[in-house]
Amino acid sequence: MKYKSLLYTYLILMGFTQAIAQTITTQGNKIIDPCGQEISLRGINYAPFNWGYSPAALEIAEIEKTGANCVRLVWYVDAEPVANAVYQDTAKLAEVMQACIDNDLIPILELHDQTCENDPQAMITLASWYLQDDVFTVLQRFEHSLIINLFNEALYIDWTGDIPGGEATFIQTYSTIIQNLRSGGINVPLMIDGSECGTNIWSLTHMATDLIEADPIDNLIFSAHAYWHYVATTMEELDALIRDAASSEVPLVIGELANYQDESVACEHTLNYEDLAAICLNYDIGWMAWSWDNDFCADRQLTTDGQFDNLTPFGESIVYNSTFGLSENPPTRSSYLTQDGNCTTTSNSDVQLDNSGISLFPNPVQGEFSIKGILGSFDLEILDSTGSSVYQVLDNSQPVVLIDLSNLPAGLFFVRIVHTSNRLISMQKIIKQ
Questions:
Q1: Are 49 and 58 in contact (CB under 8 A)?
Q2: Do residues 258 and 290 lie in contact, with contact meaning Cβ atoms separated by under 8 Å?
Q3: What's the domain range around 367?
Q4: Which of 101, 208, 302, 367 is spaced 20 to 30 Å from 42 by Cα?
Q5: Are residues 368 and 266 in the same domain?
Q6: What is the pTM of this model?
Q7: Residue-wise pLDDT tens digits, 359-404
Q8: Mean pLDDT for the chain?
Q9: Could you tell me whether strands 269-270 and 30-32 are parallel, antiparallel, or unpaired per DSSP bridges?
Q10: Does 378 lie in the same domain as 333?
Q11: How many domains does the chain contain in total?
């Protein structure tokens, strides 16, 4: 981070700032691509390079054939000795990301190190990996279409025996991590798994508002893993569970949709994934099937060998089911990817959806500065580095806005501009001297 910080300081001293690049964003319970198109994430879980032991193997092009629009990528900071050599190679990370982009698939990067663990400090430490210079460079390269699923299935709430205390720890831990990453320059959507090995959807949606408030740019997605053999098995039980979660009106996905659940042995319990997938479709909630290949439960794989031509019965259902199949009822792919970044249309054609043409001057600022180039009606908010609101302009339609920061302390602030329809228009940094 040292060299990135020095470069940023140099740019500030020269009187320039770099606008935050357009990313996937969230609005209410919707996920929006950089062209302003609503997308529902439906895809595949995949461990690139076969969990790290075959560094030459990469099957993204095979996954593309399913009709998916995203791939949730298993990654490690510190895996087993053989795999670790692959996962520590940021060139391999870039290779995976580029393969996803080339195949019009949204990469969802997740760290697997803290799976089913309950160690808040270890999570805070682990999250600093995203800000390492070499990793950060890769993430910035693909931030236009990247989602970061911070950790796989971390923390306990119900299992602590103290649900209010467990939720408070969960909120505090993730709030710290969110603010650390935002302050470090990561602006892509951050996906948060439920506790209890990902299964706790009820606490996750209950805590969502507090977590969103902790994010300076309101760009979070929430993910539950549907290993609910002891919670919900019938269509009626599953519908009630998803209906209640959907009522929270936050961006929600089923990060792992599987046909079997492990307990004392692999694949011990059969899961009603078909009804669940159909129910999710009714509530416009996305899902990612677990997993493409190399699972220790062979019947839970979508393929026998990673090749689309060799789908398992589970894979055949995920791809070809007449109700929810990825091929038969394909999810919309990101128009930003399918159009190679050429956003020719948006759902709000009168609104400027990126930072080009929106200028802050002067920047850095000692007192007053102006914002020029905004189109349409908008709300404007200035946030400090902790995400707290320090200035607001509501329901404005003037193309030039004059703002006085004289009463604020020196430091880094974010200027957030949102169309009155709740569509994020721009997020830019400004320095108060």
A1: yes
A2: yes
A3: 359-432
A4: 208
A5: no
A6: 0.78
A7: 787 888 888 888 887 777 888 889 886 678 899 888 888 878 889 9
A8: 89
A9: unpaired
A10: no
A11: 2
